[in-house]
Amino acid sequence: MDTLIKDLRFGVKSLLKRPTFTVVAIVTLALGIGANTAIFSLVNAVLIRPLSFHQPDRLVRVFEDASAINIPRDDVAPGNFADWRSQQTVFEDMAAAAPRSYNLIGDGEPERVLALAVTNSFLPVLGVQPLVGRNFTADEDKPGANRVVILCYELWQRRFGGTLDIVNRDIQLDDEMYRVVGVMPERFQFASSTVGLWVPAALTDQQLADHDNHFLMVVARLKSGIAVAQADAELQTISQRIARDHPEEALGLKSIVEPVREQMVASVRRPLLMLVVASGLVLLIACANMASLQLSRATSRGKEIALRTALGASRIRIVRQLLTESILLAFIGGVLGLLVAVWSFALLKQLVPAAMKISTMLELDFTMVAYAGAVSLLTGILFGLAPALQASKIDLNDALKQGGIRTGQGAKGNKLRGSLIVGEVALALVLLIGAGLMIQTISHLLGQYSHFEPERLLTLRTIMSDRSYRDLKEYQTKEHPKRLAFYDQVLAHVRSLPGVVSAAYTTSVPLAWKGGSNGVTIETRQQEEGRAPNAIHRQISPGYFQTMKIALKEGRDFTDQDNETVIPVAIVNQSLAREWKGESPIGKRLKLGTPNAPWVTVVGVVADVRQMGMDQPVKSEMYLPYRQISSHPWFSPRDLVIRTTGDPNSLVAAVRREIQAADPNQPVAGVATIEELLIRDAGSRRLAMILLSVFAGLALLLASLGIYGVLSFVVTQQTRDIGVRLALGAQVGDVLALVLKTGMRWVLLGVALGLVAAFALSRLVSNLLFGVSAKDPLTFLSVVLILITVALLACLIPARRATRVDPLVALRYE
């Protein structure tokens, strides 16, 4: 310990004597260790740390497998859920939830709140209890029972001031009063980060016998000792039995059992693993840079090391001293790296899956500190050991000569430095290619919506109260005058606002809702395998296609005359139009949903639009005029989309006033530009692209600095040789070519190795790409040219310095 303290004291003095080297080294290490620690913290929080449920490893999600219609994990029909629950033997219990939303009125401005309608087994299956109050009882989870609600912690604090007397208090949701029976813990979350309250599902007997409408999320808790594969096999058997018993509704039914965490992190697992690799490569480049600096520094300390050896210091003692200094540098860099990692949490939080945003915290904890310490220690050894061993191999006679400082270990040292440069260039190239592919992916994802001019489109959501805007009588007579009056007033007033080009209503703008599909029956067409094609459907107002700039390919658009007094009509997209096998669909008829649904006549064909996801296959779609459709009120228009001449956000206040004028109790939600929706949907891949680009840029900077530093040292080492060449008649161009040849030989070898590594690692990013191949030759070529250009510039500075060597000064100095 006494020797260690002495080594540390001497190391601190030695580092303080060379402030430039010390600062460069610490900053390099802080960036490398900080990036690595930050990504580890994210991976630990999302992929490793246990979920905040009781025995979370026993929690599973259950889906229907509808891969035949490109929905591999579909919501569950309530009849299938009821049969699974009653016949299974592998779960302690099963629970179901369905998304709903309510207008919260009173105690402030009207507010639209997302809710989950859950069975009373929901919280027990998850293994959580309300923070305040109680769970729903079995009697409350029945049709016609008293209306009760459990609030989320955030809504309780923000809307009701966190008062404890909230329990047993009545609040108004839509036009009905609900009794508050509980408040959930602060970090509780399931499925979505925006759920504000929970109500009983109260599924009716009719719903529990329905095997055709799919809207339930199902979660289950495995019995102790039951594996996921065993549960999956049993549910598959039950599903086959359900399909046999209900051939018209559940033909081909299949199930999927998947751990809850696997389902939550599916969208971010691959981006996270890619960032783990990227941050590791940045750290390796930083280590290579530090090893190169340490080699140069050790060479300049040749006389010091020789004197120590001459005075009796063993080789182990010399290595220990040098390694202590390296580890000291690494730990200082590690401390600053922790600060870099904590600073990055605000950005990295965006990579946390939506289903985990509330329950997952990125914070400085013991695990993170321990990881940073371990990485710092490993880094210090990694970049310090080879230079220490190299420096301790010393020839006393040569080192103690006047010129020993310049000649000791020259050839061997330069060979090792060259190897480090080769490694840096190869790793930097891998990162640059990955960043280039991701940049192209995001460009293609966003570019397919460029014809929308999304920066000029504003969207707001107005979901209307059931009791205020519909009743049984209205829908029996197929009239919905209250809704039409609201739509007409809002559209008329909004269209008259300054700066508004056009406005329209739709069930959902693209990407805002990834649902709303049903079977479609096409008249006179023989259905394959007895099953109808599946199509997304949206109710829209006239002018929607012009507002969104969705091209009309054939036929006509909707008009105000497409109302309940004329024959029902529809407009289909190009994908659905292909169902007519090359014939024009104009004038043909189809029906949506059940066989008893009315026939509608196709009057137009519009261009395909990806509604379900930016990278999801285009699905068949049909659009229906909102004045004709009253039999599906749950698909009624709710999204108002407005095309503007300027900044869409400048119109939000005016549009909100017009909506409030039409209905003072109507809340406005989902305010965003279409551009923001696109960026949001790009989500984890966009952020991964940003981080990967940052890592790649950092790698390029470190590699270029490494090339510059090594060549500068080589030029300094070879000052006498250059002087001799110039004295014997060598031209400036010869010297320039000599130095450039030395540096570029390392660079080109690194490029070759990097290309091989990039091809080998291309599978890691292939599933993240869109519109570009993982082996895209243009990306590879562009990146290679950029890297070679930057490397050439890094080589050129030391090379030009070499050409300015004065032969007389160089020879006299030696």
Structural account:
The chain has 814 residues and is α+β, with helices and mostly antiparallel strands. Helix content is 51%, strand content 16%. It has 28 helices and 22 strands. The strands form three sheets. A six-stranded mixed barrel has the order 3-4-9-6-8-7. Strands 14-15-20-17-19-18 form a six-stranded mixed barrel. A four-stranded antiparallel sheet has the order 13-21-12-22. α24 packs parallel to α27. The longest helix has 44 residues, at 674-717. The two termini are 43 Å apart. The model is unreliable at 402-409 and 471-479 (pLDDT under 50).
Keyphrases for this structure?
6-stranded mixed barrel, single chain, elongated, alpha+beta, 814 residues
Strand content: 15-25%
Task: Label the structural class.
Answer: alpha+beta
Q: N- to C-terminal separation?
A: 43 Å
Number of helices: 28
Strand order of the biggest β-sheet: 3-4-9-6-8-7
Describe the global form.
elongated
Low-confidence residue ranges: 402-409, 471-479
- What number is the mean pLDDT? 86
Radius of gyration, in Å, reads: 34 Å
Topology of this protein?
Elements (H helix, E strand, L loop, with lengths): L1 H16 L1 H30 L10 E8 L4 E4 L3 H10 L3 E15 L5 E8 L3 H5 L5 E2 L14 E4 L1 H8 L9 E4 L2 E8 L11 E6 L4 H4 L8 E6 L5 H18 L1 H4 L4 E5 H6 L3 H32 L1 H9 L4 H29 L1 H4 L17 H27 L3 H4 L4 H4 L2 H38 L9 E5 L4 H4 L2 H5 L4 H15 L4 E7 L10 E6 L11 E7 L3 H5 L3 E4 L13 E5 H4 L11 E4 L7 E7 L14 E5 L13 E6 L7 H11 L6 E5 H44 L1 H9 L4 H35 L10 H27 L3 H7 L1
Parallel strand pairs: 4-9, 6-8, 15-20, 17-19
Antiparallel strand pairs: 1-2, 1-10, 1-11, 3-4, 3-7, 3-10, 5-8, 6-9, 7-8, 12-21, 12-22, 13-21, 14-15, 14-18, 16-19, 17-20, 18-19
Helix pairs in contact: 1-12, 2-10, 2-12, 2-14, 3-7, 10-14, 10-17, 10-24, 12-14, 17-24, 17-26, 17-27, 20-23, 24-27, 25-28, 26-27
